[in-house]
Specification:
The chain is mainly beta. It is built from two helices and 15 strands. The longest helix is centred in the first third of the chain and has 6 residues. The structure holds 6-O-phosphono-alpha-D-mannopyranose and zinc ion.
């Protein structure tokens, strides 16, 4: 019989022997941010987010599903909110669900045509990420943002495309709230 894990439905966090844990520190994320001067001044060992994953079938299994969550700390680099790396799926047509448990955030979505949009995240919000769409989450609040994720076991993570080309817009704080801006500073949402 396959192993199973437990989720706390208040916090969204997982427990059990089969849960994998990983974390991302600022040092590994610095180049994602627009304000490099501000990024270089911040500590490399600052943990920006942690991920729990439950992967009951081997990575790459067609038809399988993975479950996990991300805890993204509050903070900013310059005026840009702390965010996940973001990725397309290696198999481009694979979709994903995100669902928010705690905190406030923004799910930034970019289609292959380079059009970027965002959806606000708050406790209870459920977000469908279609295939062919890069996805990244920003913490726009002052407490940790926790969201669960469910994605196909054969989706894979393509980080290279995002590292090379970036998203076409960034979620930044203006007048105390989140605004999506293009690289020339134009507000688009
Ligand atoms: C969610 C899922 C994971 C992903 C994680 C962090 O939990 O989408 O597959 O790894 O967020 O996002 P990223 O991999 O872009 O850093
Ligand atoms: Zn994904």
């Amino acid at each position: 019989m396959a192993s199973y894990v437990s989720m706390n439905w208040q916090s969204g966090l997982l427990s059990g022997n089969a849960v994998q844990h990983s974390s991302k520190a600022l040092g590994a994320l610095r180049t994602l941010f627009h304000d490099q001067e501000a990024a270089q001044k911040m500590p490399a060992d600052l943990i920006v987010y942690t991920v729990q994953a439950y992967t009951p079938v081997p990575d790459g299994t067609e038809g399988g599903l993975f479950w996990g969550n991300t805890t993204l700390q509050p903070g900013k680099v310059g005026d840009e909110y702390f965010m996940t790396k973001g990725h397309f799926h290696d198999i481009r047509n694979r979709g994903e669900y995100y669902a928010t448990f705690h905190g406030e955030g923004g799910l930034v979505l970019m289609g292959q045509n380079g059009v970027t949009r965002w959806e606000p995240m708050a406790p209870g919000s459920v977000h469908y990420i279609p295939g062919y769409t890069a996805h990244r989450v920003c913490n726009t609040g002052s407490i940790p943002l926790v969201f669960a994720a469910c994605w196909p076991a054969d989706a894979g993570h393509d980080y290279e495309t995002v590292e090379r080309e970036g998203f076409t817009a960034r979620l930044v704080e203006r007048n105390g709230g989140p605004v999506l801006v293009t690289s020339n500073g134009e507000e688009i949402g």
